[in-house]
């Protein structure tokens, strides 16, 4: 299994012109977010790769330290591997330019990092339970990118103060960002799913 090519474990379901790149959270795999993707856009094609870092037997896209902070070298490696995988998948499956990242937790953070490192690959990103993944964000132009950050007010992994700064930084790069907040913790809100689905449509 090479994380950079199509031997990487993944699921692809061909439907419409838009593609949702599904990036799972810690402990899940490439099948975990298929129902979420279909709920957000029933007409979209779905591409769901597995995170290739293992932490205590659980799949992740990149490493974190015991204090919960992200290992920056691992984030950059994960993004580089995803870029190579996506370029091959786009060619192999004939995917168009309307690709949106859709991720939860570690996968949402990977989607955000991919967006700011390689904005040419994604039209936007839907991020559930996410926070800022990179300590230093490149000064890229995100004009025309549509982002949703959907977090719980009591999510220990995504404090509201941190999210507020991250949203402001993304908007400063030109992105159109919707910040959705629910009263729960580290979870996906069905109401947020419905709202994002309506807006994407």
Secondary-structure map:
Layout: E1 10-13, E2 19-23, H1 34-40, E3 45-49, E4 53-55, E5 58-60, H2 72-93, E6 99-104, H3 106-117, E7 124-128, E8 146-152, H4 160-172, E9 176-182, H5 190-200
Parallel strand pairs: 2-3, 2-6, 6-7, 7-8, 8-9
Antiparallel strand pairs: 1-3, 4-5
Q: Could you provide a short overview of the structure?
A:
With 201 residues, this protein is an alpha/beta fold. The chain has helices spanning 34-40, 72-93, 106-117, 160-172, 190-200; strands spanning 10-13, 19-23, 45-49, 53-55, 58-60, 99-104, 124-128, 146-152, 176-182. It contains five helices and nine strands.
Describe the overall structure.
- This protein is an alpha/beta fold and 201 residues long.
- The protein has one domain: 3-Layer(aba) Sandwich (Rossmann fold), CATH 3.40.50.1820.
- Helices cover 32% and strands 22% of the residues.
- The radius of gyration is 15 Å and the shape is globular.
- The protein starts with 9 loop residues before the first strand and ends with a helix.
Query: What is the tally of helical segments?
Result: 5
Shape by Cα distribution: globular
Question: What is the H/E string?
Answer: EEHEEEHEHEEHEH
Task: Count up the domains.
Answer: 1
Helix content: 25-40%
Low-confidence stretches: none
Provide the CATH superfamily: Alpha/Beta hydrolase fold, catalytic domain
- How many DSSP-defined strands? 9
Biggest sheet layout: 7 strands, mixed
CA-atom Rg in angstroms: 15 Å
Distance between the termini: 35 Å
Query: What class, by secondary structure content?
Result: alpha/beta
How are the strands ordered across the major sheet?
1-3-2-6-7-8-9
State the CATH topology. Rossmann fold
Proportion of residues in β-strands: 15-25%
Mean pLDDT: 96
- Assigned CATH class: Alpha Beta
CATH architecture: 3-Layer(aba) Sandwich
